Amino acid sequence: MIPLFKVHAPNNIGQKLQEVFDSGFLTEGEYSDKFEKSLANYIGNENVCLVNSCTSALVLACHVCEIGAGDEVITTAMTCMATNEPFYNAGAKLVFADIDPETGNIDPNDIRRKITSKTKAIVVVHWAGQPVDLKAINEIALANNIRVIEDAAHALGAKYENRRIGNHSDFVCFSFQAIKHLTTADGGAIVCRDEKDAERIRKIRWYGLDRKYSEKTGKSRWEQDIPESGFKMHMNNLNAAIGIEQMKSIDFIIGSHIENGKYYDKNINNEKVKKLKRTENCLSSYWIYSVLVEDKEEFKNYMNNNGIATDVVHVRNDAYSVFEGFKSDELKSLEYFESRLMNIPVGWWLSREQRRHIVDVVNGY
Fold first, then answer.
1. DSSP string of 96-148, one letter each residue
2. Contact between residue 172 and residue 150 where contact means Cβ atoms under 8 Å apart
3. pLDDT in tens, 155-179
4. Which entry of 93, 120, 180, 203 is annotated as an active-site residue?
5. DSSP string covering 311-365, please?
6. pLDDT tens digits for 90-99?
7. From CA 283, how far away is CA 263, in angstroms rounded?
8. Residue 323's closest CA among 313, 315, 312, 335?
9. pLDDT (mean) for 246-260
10. Strands 93-97 and 72-76
11. For this structure, is 120 an active site residue?
């Protein structure tokens, strides 16, 4: 069976983890600093803050945006539940906007229609690694004095207008969970447009303490004040050590996803299997390869019988009872997309022979 996901394991990772244990410093420190810098260089933005999950990154974005009870957040329901739970838990009203049925991404026109005086932020997801229309969305946000938060869990290495995702909005949240492009076993990062936001987040990810206080002042860490209560959401040295080793293969990992995805774009030709639309000013990172079919169960069984794993990966969030109060009958494009959505293997683990086999099987459906 060709798997839909596979965890990338760096060479000699056990030895590297042993080095961290032998150092005696397991929590945030030398390794997390090094990984944070490496990631910043890759993305092209110095305002990178490592955390213990993408969910924590979203919680911190929510906190810094001061989103709470009575506020509204315009978001998408076509995503993992982890995208929206931080805002729900903060007491905000989730306002689900419709999507573009050809990409799975949130529709800027529907965002515009749903803005009110209570709107505090727009939350977007780059479905399958295909960037949303960030120019249009940030223009809407600027005109209405609201913040943009990107859930970029699918989109490490993707580009919008020749710049990597992580450079366009107020806050961009990445995931390093097990099956993402780059995994640290679990972990994440939040990237900020404003350096002051990054400085604030680096404190509140660790109780409100400045971990660099002694280096900056020559005084003991315990002499500093805590002006703002924080959380325990930092990344530890063990996860960071994995991240450092994964970065050595990042071009291969993401490059393979992109190469395979473009191969499918060119060679899958079956009117019963609809491919997603690609926009000229974007480069997808092809974390997954989504297709739309009329009968999902039939397609899944057909692919399984031919040795190829498939799955929906995510379901619309308003299908969960926890979000039932925010359900809308207006999301017709989302309904069309989600009712037909399936995903096929596209990752770095595919051989050229397996890639050709997948195309032949899909075209024979």
1. EEPB-TTT--B-HHHHHHH--TTEEEEEEE-GGG----HHHHHHHHHHHT-EE
2. yes
3. 999 999 999 999 999 999 999 999 9
4. 180
5. B-----GGGSGGGGGG--TT-HHHHHHHTTEEEE--STT--HHHHHHHHHHHHT-
6. 999 999 999 9
7. 14
8. 315
9. 98
10. parallel
11. no
